[in-house]
Sequence to fold (410 residues):
Amino acid sequence: MPTNKSTWRAVCQPAVIVGALGYFVDIYDLILFSILRIPSLKALGYSGPDLVSYGILLLNCQMVGMLVGGVLWGMLGDRIGRIQLLFGSILLYSLANLANGFVGSVESYALWRFVAGVGLAGELGGSITLVSEVLSKEMRGYGTALVATIGVTGAIFGGFVADFVDWRTAYFIGGGLGLCLLFLRMSVAESGMFKQAKETTIKRGSFLSLFTCRKRLVKYLRCILIGVPIWYVIGVLVTFSPEFAKALGVTAPIKANYAVISCYCGLAIGDLSSGFFSQWIGSRKRVVAIFLAVTFASVSAYLALTGQSPYAFYATILAMGVGIGYWAVFVTIAAEQFGTNIRATVATSVPNFVRGAIVPITLSFEYTKGAFGIVPGAAMVGAACLTIAVIALWGMEETHGKDLDYHEIV
Fold:
């Protein structure tokens, strides 16, 4: 852990500070639908089971947009630069979230959640790529941990905003914050590694190159699969926490925004501790394994929490947030696994494929919920997600302290 002023100065460069603020706005906008799902759909005239079915539809539209954007922005980040990627993505999702505040039907809502998803897809991967290349190998774990930790507090901010303004205004705030951040981005310099790569004739930003080499493909898939439990927790257990609370007999109704706040408070704790702990013990893999174990324990407790108070329910959600707080390490691993010429492509697409995994996860949950009930159905899907992540982690390369100044032969 950084212990002196000179070390902190080395970590807190403009790329880290602005990246953290950018991810703050990104997370605020990303998680906003989970917070506003019920009030926004009720305002559009829906109720009862439609709140779940249309909620899944809109969430999936956003996540499909992130899949598209993850590939698009990643390729552009390797071809035209990390800074240009960040400018384009934040402009698109800011304008899309302003448009979300004006929707009048579920069809237009779905369209703008898709467009917002495309824009949101570029922020995290672009920031982590830039920070990983700007900081030394001794410092980059601290830098990426700070970006992720400060960033996830955007969800906490969003949860409180939802208590004081109506759902349309909450979207307007997100769009406005993003546009303001564009001015801060002007103070950030481009990565030196990218500038050097740009001067060579080596092919950059080739997404298809990830599929032309078996070893590279397996490595890429491992990066994606270790993150699947994170969005199982957020997309299923937290997004639909009011329905789970009712099925589990929690003694009072649960508010979705408080569930999101609880989860992301845990995520902030987990991101900071996992990032710093990985630097301390000199291993990314061991830290991910520990946090997967915490996730398993907290998810098991959540699904067994019958007849408890709302406070116990929120506390369990916070514990799940801590468990999935290996997000910072997970994205850092993705950036460290590949060469400079496809690093942004990987680091931007990997977290978005994980987010996009919410589509098969929620579809599986909807099926198992109908066949076995909401709690057993969630348990089955969760067991599958955690098993897949453990298998993927088992054969993964350790990347702590790895020199990143190299190219992939594509």
Notes: The radius of gyration is 20 Å. The chain has a mean pLDDT of 88. The chain has one domain: 11-183+212-394. The CA atoms of residues 65 and 354 lie 13 Å apart.
